[in-house]
Amino acid sequence: MRIAVEGCAHGELEIIYDSLLEVQKADGKKIDLLICCGDFQSTRNLTDLKCMAVPDKYKDMCTFYKYYSGEKVAPILTIFVGGNHEASNYLQELPYGGWVAPNIYYLGYASVITIGGIRIAGVSGIFKSQHWMQGRYEKPPYNNDTIRSVYHVRNLDVFRLKQLTGSIDIFLSHDWPRGITKYGDEKALLRKKPFFRSDIESKCLGSQPNMELLEQHYPAYWFAAHLHCKFAALIPEDGGSRVTKFLALDKCLPKRKFLQVLEIQHDENIPLKISYDLEWLTILFLSNHLLSIKSGTHYMPGEYGSGRWIYTPTEEEKQKVLKKFNGDLEVPLNFTQTVEPYNPEAPKGFVEPATLQINEQTTEFCNKLGIDDPFVLLQVISGPTEKKYDMTESMAVASCDNVIESSEIFSESEDEGLCNSTFDGDNSSYTVHSLSGATLPSPKRNVDNCYINEEISSKEISEPSLEESVSTTNIESPCDSTTQGTHIEPNYDPCPPLVYDTLDDKFT
Ligand SMILES: [Zn+2]
Ligand SMILES: [Zn+2]
């Protein structure tokens, strides 16, 4: 399988696809999958644009709406995790993942899928300690706070990812695992990004939960974005034999290293379609009662509590979930539009504020698995009808555009020479790192050394027997989980909030 990995997309889908088609044309080899590591900007219309936490000057419709409306079709199967610059109202419709447009699949807050037998896990958003233990209480229209907290990673999603067993081939995140820089050419990174120094020295650069996930699973590859530079690292397991190859890529801009193409061996007998991961589905099912839609502190179960605290499923539990899906784990092609797409011809006028939309894809998934859609729970709390448009809320949303975000200061020249010491060279790969206007570059072979040299072996998706009967599991109230026994939460943030947290918003 030939995979293209993209750093931040920032809505530039047309440019990215054109680049990839150019790469395909150049060497005659099909690219099977595009992976995007966040800041995807799946804005369908001007209302979605208002839900992005960026200053007005950066609010550009870009080109995603064309793929949403059907004007264009994504030429390559595309998957992505969310970042910090997203149409958060749209992504919230798909908390467990789903199609944002035909052939473009969002992984949800966290999830695991397989494509051609390759197991891919992902976590969306960025880490910020003050929202880590909150429930998923945000809903559109967002205010000055929720427009940002909505994309902060929550403990439930990481807790669920920690229940996984077995090997993971590819892990996707938007922000970097904390401490990752010491496994790569940190000096070269600091030459290009000297302002990272204080955060690196105080061990505040990146996400600690991401590093914990990496050090638990040691996926073959970990891809990330967010810091808008290319960086590669090799992380060996302490006392073990596993190794993770980490690669962060830049955002989609001329002369930036934002794309990488690699070959991964997969089982040719398994079609290159997206399937759910049975273990992940079972974890979702078993931990549904831990879902919270409250803003208060929300603990995950711990060793010293009274109830279950490990949700790694048994074979029997997995069988029951498989039965719910009638043994068919292929993700249905059930994309439907939930709002009117942007029409560039339409007269500019009043932009409707975003409302809470229930997405049929999520409804279908939740009904099948027997879990809750957080938006439905929020709707229940809000009452059966959406409240009328509130002018003060609208103004709050508008006013957050005034928050200073200085992505401009990062519009520096190409990170030439960055991270050239970690991965071995590879003849079968190249990085696309230059784009300007209509002239697309021919790919250069061996243009950098940050490439990944190893093929990963394919996996069989085991298809357990379907003969066991389905048991009916009661779903507890999603708001009860804070009452569960004694819990343990790691103290993640010894870092002063001024250092890394303020940088979050600078990185577009
Ligand atoms: Zn970002
Ligand atoms: Zn970005």
Automatic annotation (TrEMBL):
Keyword Iron belongs to the record: yes
Domain of life where this protein originates: Eukaryota
Stated name of the protein: Lariat debranching enzyme isoform X1
Record's compositionally biased regions (Polar residues): 470-486
Provenance organism: Cephus cinctus (Wheat stem sawfly)
Requisite cofactors: Zn(2+); Fe(2+); Mn(2+)
Signal peptide, first to last residue: none
Disordered: annotated span: 461-493
Pfam family, one: Metallophos
Keywords assigned: Hydrolase, Iron, Manganese, Metal-binding, mRNA processing, Nucleus, Zinc
Similarity remark: Belongs to the lariat debranching enzyme family.
Cited function: Cleaves the 2'-5' phosphodiester linkage at the branch point of lariat intron pre-mRNAs after splicing and converts them into linear molecules that are subsequently degraded. It thereby facilitates ribonucleotide turnover.
GO molecular function annotation: metal ion binding; RNA lariat debranching enzyme activity
CDD domains: MPP_Dbr1_N
Location, primary (coarse class): nucleus
Domain Lariat debranching enzyme C-terminal: 235-375
Gene3D superfamilies the record matches: 3.60.21.10
